[in-house]
Amino acid sequence: MKLSKNLSLSEVVKSNNAIRKGIDNSPNNDHLESLEDVAKDIFQPLRDDLGVIYVSSGYRSDALNKAIGGSRKSQHSKGEALDLDNDNKNGAASNTEIFNYIKDNLDFDQLIWEFGTDEKPDWVHVSYTTKRPNRNQILKAYRQSGKTKYKSM
Question: Model pTM?
Answer without folding.
Answer: 0.94
